[in-house]
Structures are given as C-alpha cells and as structure tokens.
Amino acid sequence: MSQAHHEEIAEQHTAKVIGVTVAAAVGGFLFGFDSSVVNGAVDSIQQTFDLGELFKGFAVAIALLGCAVGAWFAGRLADIWGRKRVMLVGSVLFVISAIGTAYTQTVWDLLMWRVLGGLGIGIASVIAPAYISEIAPARFRGALASMQQLAITLGIFAALLSDKLLQSAAGEPMNDLWWGLEAWRWMFLVGVIPAVVYGALALTIPESPRYLVGRHRDEEAARILQEVTGEANPLERVKEIKLTVKRESAASLHDIRGPSFGLHPLVWVGIWLAVFQQFVGINAIFYYSTTLWKSVGFDTAQAFTTSVITSAINVGMTFVAILFVDRIGRRILLLWGSVGMFVGLVMACVAFTQSVTTVVNDVAEVSLPNPWGVLALIGANTFVVFFAATWGPIMWVMLGEMFPNRIRGVALGVCTAVNWVANFTISMLFPEMSKVLGLSWIYGFFAFCAAASFFFVRSKVAETKGMELEEMDGVAASRLEQFEAVRSAKGTE
C-alpha cells in the first residue's frame, strides 16, 4: 500500500474522530448556553418577581446545584446505561427546562425549571469530556478534549448574542416580543433548538469503546476503534482496556479513598483544579456582566453589546488552547494562565476602587470616571483572554485524562460536582457581596485566587500530554507510592 494511501486513510479516521467529538461537544454548547442565557434576563427576573439581591443570586445560582447533582450521578449512570443514553437524558432535561422557564409564573416554579436545566448541564459537563477522552487517540486528545471548552464558549457567545438580539428587537428585556411573551422569556425558549440538535446528534455517534469493553462487548469495541480512530491493532487495544476497566462497573466512592484526608491524592488535585477554575471569578462575568456594566454607567444596549464582545473574545482565545495544548502541554499553559489572569484581575480591582456613587431621585448610581472605566474593561477582558486560552479548557482536559480508568467515572463526577458547588458559591454571593463590600474587594479576592492557583499548579499538577489513558494507572500508582514514602519519612523524623 502506498504512502499516499496510508495518509488518505489516516485523514479519513481523523475526520471521523473530529466528527464524533464535535457531536459530543454539542453538550458543551448547551452547557455554555443554558448557564449564561440568564445574563440578559437576570434584571427582568428580579423585577418580575420582586427579588432582593441575595435571592436574585440564589435564583441564578440554584441551577448550579442541579449541575452538581447531575455531575455527581452522570459518571455512574454512564457506566450503567452507556454514554449515548445519558446524553439523550441531558437533551430531554434541557428541552423541558427551556420551555418551563419561558412560561414560568412564580419564582418557585422558576427555581424548579432552573434546577432541571442544571441537571442537564451537570450531565453534559461530565459526559462530553469523558466520552471525548475515551474515543480520541493520545496524539491529539488534548486538542479534541479542548473542543468541549470551545463548544462551551460558543454556547456562551450564542446565549449572549441571542439575548442582545432579543433585547434589541423588544427595546427592553421586560417588553413583550412575540406570542405575548416578554423578551426575557424568549431568551430561555430559544434554548430548545440546540437541545433538540444535541439529542439528534447523540443518536448518530458510536458508543465509547471503554464502556463496551466494560460490558463485555469486545468485538463491537474493536470495530469502533478500527473504524473511527484507525487503531492498527484493535484487539490488542481492547485487551489493554480490559485490564484497566475490569473494576469500572463496580467503582464507588470507596475506590477513591486514600491516605490524604480520606481521598486519593490525585482526586484532591482534581478537586482543587475545579475550585480554582471557579474562584478566579469567570462566571461572575458571564452570569452578571450585563448587570455589572450597567452598574458602572453603561446603558442597557451598551451593557449587552459589551457582554457579547467579551464572549467573542472568550471563543477566539479558546482556539489558542486547542492549537497549543498538545504542543506546549497542559501544565505550562495553566501556569501562564494563572499569571495572566492575576494581572487582568488586579487591573479591574484597581479600577473599581475609583468608582463614584451619586444619588439621583433617592436611587444610588455607581459610575467609573475616565480612564477607570476603560481600565476595568481592559482588565476584565485581559482576564477572559488568559482564562479562555488556559484554565477554561485545560481544567476539563486534565479531569478527563488524569485519573486511572478504574476510578475515572467516580473521580470525574466528584471533581465536576465540586466545580459546580464552587460556581454556585461565587454566583449566589456575587450580587450581595458586591453591594456590601464593593467590586474592588471582590475582584481583589479573585486576583488572590489566581495567584494561589499558580503555586498550586507548580507544586501539585503533573503533565499528562501524550499519554494513553491506560498509562494513567501506572502513573497514579507511582505517585501514590511517592506520597506514602514521603509520609513514612516524615513519620520517622
């Protein structure tokens, strides 16, 4: 067979892998869309249901509790039902939530629909990176796993752009648009379209080979490895997978126990990666940016437009991660990201110390005089640039590949649930804490977390670039042995 024919076959397999990755990553699109669409509607929800700042934060953040629950159970459900079926469950939950939220009549059923949507987001946040990491060859698994974050950023952009278009069509989010529904309700209703697309695509992709091996469907797994990824020796790869996943179906919380405060050291690394990704404050921008910019003197149209521009930057910089994650490596990108985020957040923090409050008709209005408003914008967008190119996608890449197969489903579920709890904490408290402490203190805290993330990565996070998932068992065992040796040495001192 000629070299040209070999290259042609390789290109065909690469196209197939990219195709199934894109289909799975639509779950990430819904993740970004559903979690950020509230940005344009949050003030209208507050006015419609007469909510205080803390309850407004709760109404936004309660979806994240559903996310945590969905993430917690998604891994185990995927091990029982398969990746494809769980994707379909997520699609159905998205559809129900979008329709329910659009037609909500009381704050209590609004909260219920938000929680249902959160369950769908939580499922998508676990299943997509797990599926992609399991189907993708090691040589470009990082780039393909980053497609999940690209899809998330595209979902965020689509949500904020649709919010902007609907706001422009109606004049204000509270104004009626079509069929007697206010514009803010349509912001949620349009989410039905990508949810249906996600469900349809989930029906077209192959099942994960690792799930099939766990279910003793070895021939089917070998066929998929050969047809989709171009594996030269699929039966040998099936044997390798079988050695590492034979305990997968029985995996439980007991399997991630370890000597470090009751958990395996690798699980703690994943947990702290998940916490830092949220505690740098990214979703304070993507959930509340429209409200934030209105609070410092932008009119409604300007605030919506600025939010769209920020989300477009988020999309563009995610391509940087896709381009370099398999060339430079995960760890270096995380370190550079921590430095860049710190610089941007310090700029925003300094700018917000110069905010001016004036009282007009008994209403306090906050503004940023020149040049501080410009500095706040530059700082916030600098932060988004570095987050989108590093911590945004790389955290999900790491969680999808850093754990050995036998605990991947449970560990990924735990770490993703922690990510959503951290997201909930920041999202719920941001409106109230901004009012009580001021934005400068809030952004100062985010900057502190960005600095702390640098030292954490430097001391605790190991590189996983270019490693097959089956190799993670040996690496994890080696790290655990090193941990035990250090602990024993300390105990004898």
Pick out its properties.
493 residues, two-stranded antiparallel sheet, mainly alpha, Growth Hormone, Chain: A
Descriptive overview:
With 493 residues, the protein is mostly helical. The chain has a single domain (3-205, 251-492), classed as MFS general substrate transporter like domains (Growth Hormone, Chain: A, Up-down Bundle), CATH 1.20.1250. It is built from 20 helices and 4 strands. It has helices at 3-36, 38-49, 53-81, 83-102, 107-135, 141-170, 183-189, 192-202, 209-214, 218-229, 234-245, 265-279, 282-295, 300-324, 330-352, 372-389, 391-401, 405-437, 439-460, 472-492, and strands at residues 176-178, 181-182, 356-360, 363-367. β1 (176-178) and β2 form a beta hairpin. α10 packs across α11 (234-245) and α15 runs antiparallel to α19 (439-460). The radius of gyration is 23 Å and the shape is globular. Mean pLDDT is 75; it is low at 1-10.
Which SSEs are present, and which pair or pack?
Elements: H1 3-36, H2 38-49, H3 53-81, H4 83-102, H5 107-135, H6 141-170, E1 176-178, E2 181-182, H7 183-189, H8 192-202, H9 209-214, H10 218-229, H11 234-245, H12 265-279, H13 282-295, H14 300-324, H15 330-352, E3 356-360, E4 363-367, H16 372-389, H17 391-401, H18 405-437, H19 439-460, H20 472-492
Helix pairs in contact: 1-4, 1-5, 1-6, 1-8, 2-6, 2-7, 2-13, 3-4, 3-5, 3-18, 4-5, 4-7, 4-8, 5-6, 5-17, 5-18, 6-7, 6-14, 6-17, 10-11, 12-17, 12-18, 12-19, 13-14, 13-18, 14-16, 15-16, 15-17, 15-19, 16-17, 18-19
